[in-house]
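Quick start: what a row looks like.
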Amino acid sequence: MNLTKQQYADMVDRAVPKSRLLRDCIGAFLTGGAICLIGQGIRDSYLWLGLSEKDTACMTSMTLVFIGVLLTFLGLYDNIAAFAGAGTLVPITGFANAVASPAMEFRCEGWVMGTGAKMFAIAGPVIAYGTAASMLYGLWIVLISSV
């Protein structure tokens, strides 16, 4: 099959899916914003109940993690992520999903070698590198502020 460069380019254009960058960015922005808005509503509700700022921060995080895990368990988080893309990865609910999904998937292999070992397969590197980066950043701040 002898193709000219133009024929090959036309074939490639037909085969390559069209970019949905604008749609993906809008979906990520709206979904990430909605998650943050829900988090703010939860925070305001806890403050309205009379919790201290510190307790409110803790309870808001715990509630968002619970919601993320619940949506993962119900199979809804993947549908939201299909629309939102990166909009569901950044908030704390994305981290909850990253821990809950492998735990659910590998539970048939047992509590230790399945759920326990695979739970941090995705989130483990984030924890490890996040901890290392925060330590280096903290050390850098201490060194800079002491000069």
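That is the whole record. The CA atoms of residues 9 and 15 lie 10 Å apart. Helices lie at 5-15, 21-48, 53-73, 77-84, 92-105, 111-118, 123-145.
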